[in-house]
Each structure stands twice: as C-alpha cells, then as structure tokens.
Amino acid sequence: MSPPHRNIRTRMKPAREPRKPNTGIESAIAALTAKREALLSPLATISADAIRRHNRTPEDIRTPFSRDADRIIHTRAYTRYIDKTQVFYLVENDHITHRVIHVQLVSKIARTIGRCLRLNEDLIEAIALGHDIGHIPYGHFGETCLAEICRQQGIGSFHHNVQSVRFLDRIEDQDLTMQVLDGILCHNGEADDVRISPVPCSSWSAFDKKVQDASDGKSPGAPMTLEGCVVKFADTIAYIGRDLQDAREVGLIADDNRIPARCREVLGEDNRRIIDTLIHDLLENSNTETKGYIAYSRDVEAALIELRSFSRRHIYDNPVLCSEREKIRAMYSTLFAVYLDDIAAGQHTSRIYSDFIDSGHISRNYLTSATPAEVARDFIAGMTDRYFAKRYEECVIPRRIEGKFR
Predict the structure, then answer these.
(1) Cβ contacts of residue 341 below 8 Å, gap of 6+?
(2) 225-268 per-position pLDDT tens digit
(3) Which ranges of 153-294 would DSSP assign to H, the alpha helix?
(4) How far apart are CA 4 and CA 379, in angstroms?
(5) What does the pLDDT look like over 5-42, one tens digit per residue?
(6) CA 233 – CA 68 distance, rounded (Å)
(7) 68-322 CATH
(8) What's this model's pTM, rounded to 2 decimal places?
(9) Would you report the helix, strand and coil content of the chain in percent, each value rounded to 5?
(10) Torsions phi, psi for 189 (to 5 deg)
(11) Where are the domains of the chain?
C-alpha cells in the first residue's frame, strides 16, 4: 500500500536539508522512521517539517522532536519543576499535585489522544514536557504579582507561556524546533475553546512577532500544528478533575460538596471519570484526516465551562487559599528590588550573580542583550517555591554575626 498523500500546502521548507545518514544504523533508523511516519494522518507533522533556528549540530538517530524532548528534560529549568506547586501553594500535603506531576499527566493524556488520532507523539511529548517551564513561585497568583512589577518597570507584562519560550529559546538557548516552541507558546488550557484548527506560522520572524504579541497581552492564537492543539486540550483535561481531587484531599472542598448537576451528568464527578469522558469526546469530535481540527461536542464544552466556573469560586478564589496573598505580593516586590539594586551595584556576591548570571548555564547572547529588570524578572521566574522563600528570608532576616568584639 502506498503512503497516504501528505498535505504540503501549509508546510514550511526546512532551513536546510537534513544530514544524510553516514552509518548503517543511522540509515536503518531513518528508513524505519520514514516508514512509521507514513502511517500517520495526512495532516500530522512529520520529521521533515522540523525547523530549527540555528541548526548548530546535525540531527542524529532520534527524530528532531524526540531530540527536542531530550533537550528540554536536560535543562535546568525542567529540573526545577520538582519543587513548583500547581494550585495549592503553602499547603503541606505530599499527595497533592505539584507542577512536575501535572506535566507528566499532560504528556500522557496528550500522547494517548495523539496515538488514537494518528498524530506525531514525539512532537506532542516535547510540547507537553516544556509547556509549563515558565510557571513561577506560588502558581498563577505569583504570575499576577510579577506581571504588576514588570509593567511598573516598563518591560511589559508577564505570562508564563511566554516565559517558557524565553527560558528554552533565549536563556538556555536550546535551539528547539519552531513547532515545539509554538506549541508551548499556545498551550494555555484556560480558554473556553470548543474547536481549534492549526494556524501556520510562515517564518522565524513571524514566530518572534507572535511571541512579542503574546508578551504584550494579546492571545497567541491557535498552535501551528494539530499536535500543539492536542496539548492545549490535554492541559485542561489534566488539571480540571485533578484540582477537584486535590481540593477534596486537603479539605478545601467537602466530600459532600458536589459539583453542578450538569457537570456530574455530562462529565462525571471524579477525576478518573472526567478524564475518560473528555478524552473520548475529543476523539469522537475531532478531525485529523481531512479538515484538521481538534474539538469537543457542544454539550461537553458547556459542562466544562460550568465546571471551570465552579472551580474558580470554590478552589482558585477560595478565601482560605487566598489568605496569604498580600504577603506573597510583598515578597515579590522585595526580592525584585533587592536584585535590581544588586545588579546596579555589581554585587557579585549576590545570589542573582552566583546562581544565575555567573552560573555558566545562561546564554551569553541573552546576558548581553537583556536589561537589568529583565534579568531580575527571569531569575525570580525560574525559582521554585522553596528557593523563593529562602531568598526572601535571606534578604529580610538579619544574619547572625560570628566572632568576638573588642
């Protein structure tokens, strides 16, 4: 059987031809990859579509998107997922979701959907693994605090999806493919999207403008690939039921506080059932063979919007969870001011130098082009919750003076 016809009208020409395999094993793997990708949907993204900004090193036995996933996993930013909270910051409980678990859930859910729709799982995995790298201490409220400071400093607002791209593309300069970076930029699962079709991105300059627009507060729009669209939906599927589960775990929502009737009837009441319902509905209503879109049914989308509203009232804006917010806002203001002063004074003993500027892990191109306020923003944005709290204590609590006095 001949391979399915591939739609090339929306595909960009790679920056250069991929390296020809120079060993027997590379040739065999390249042939196996081509054979496997011929079985994908005609609208799926294939390895030949991959576009890098620099192409510093030739591709190897991995597909370009699998290589991107490996590069993301080995970044320092990815390592810091381990101690970043998801929703329930300042809550001591080992069984609630942290950012690293959420990312794994998004990856698993998205790859399951992609496999059923015959899309590129390597691309899906890379987008999913990198999508929340830009999240900062104390979740979405921390993002609100840092956004306020950034606007005051005249460096625009702050958005975690843009910051994820910034970490991978500029700060650690991983030379990822445009398809992966674009999926990360457009991943936000908070929007009430019932149906998404990919929107092609024509060049790196067009992508950079898309990033700048998103930094200015404009919606980045739809991803450029169906795989990116899948991750966008999987982000919601991963958190919407899990947040309810965690809220019950910590007692924020009583077991007898049931979600709205329509949500129970359409989606289910527990995380397992909600995930199962959303995935099946997505598979039944998406088209990746001819028209190219990912979609829910109208009934499921209406119930999902209602469930989001319920969670916002009872979880995200719950007075118990919000009680320490002004202290957190003050912590952000203090740390930003301290590190900005340290940069101005060239205080190389400061943590912003030892742990960021002079660490040897930051791109020199970034350091020579970023303003002091941008450097302070990016250092704070990369912190885990625990590291952030320690640095604040270091700045405001007097240190014990050792030694004898005459």
Answers:
(1) 347
(2) 999 999 999 999 999 999 999 999 888 887 666 789 999 999 99
(3) 160-166, 178-185, 204-215, 226-249, 261-266, 271-285
(4) 47
(5) 444 334 444 444 555 556 688 888 888 888 999 999 99
(6) 21
(7) 1.10.3210.10
(8) 0.91
(9) 55, 0, 40
(10) -95, 15
(11) 68-322, 325-396
